[in-house]
Amino acid sequence: MSATRYRRFLKLCEEWPRDEFKKGRDLGTFLRQKVAVGFREGENTQIQDPEKCDQMYESLARINTNVYKQRFPRVRDTSFTGVTVEECKLLLSGNVQQMDEEKKGLWKKLMERFSKSQEDVPEKAPEK
Fold it and tell me: Which chain regions cross the lipid bilayer (predicted)?
């Protein structure tokens, strides 16, 4: 029985997309590592709690097939900040420098304002 569970998880890992921009922070990579640890002996691995294992697989499979995205469609493709999906992906990928200067949003303006070095800040006069 654990052989079929192992094959199901391997198939899920193959289908799960990888995000090359999020090296070390990618959910697909994390999932692959957890499956490798959980099934150390491959098909011969003894599952401690088969019911919990099946529940975890079903949950991950629902996320991977966008069940919740279809069940609860979004009205707009932006957030309350007005940032588009593409801009969010760009921000989360860690490549903030690639954003166009003319599309400078609130987040970028705040980051520039608060990233000034201490030398730029006027010093207080010593109190006597």
Answer: none
- For the segment 40-46, the average pLDDT, to the nearest whole number, is 79
Does this model's pTM top 0.70? My answer is no
How far is it, in rounded angstroms, from Cα 89 to Cα 73?
Answer: 19
Domain span at 55: 2-65
88: closest CA among 70, 75, 102, 103?
A: 103
What's the length of the chain? Answer: 128
Q: Give the mean model confidence (pLDDT) for residues 49-67.
A: 91
Q: What is the DSSP string of 57-121?
A: HHHHHHHHTTHHHHHS--S-SB-TT--BHHHHHHHHHT-GGGS-GGG--HHHHHHHHHT--GGGS
**Which tokens go with 110?**
């705040």
Residue 127 lies in a domain: no
Helix (H) or strand (E) holding 36: helix 27-38
Q: Is the pLDDT of residue 97 over 90?
A: no
- Three-state secondary structure call for residue 49: coil
Do both 91 and 41 map to the same domain? no
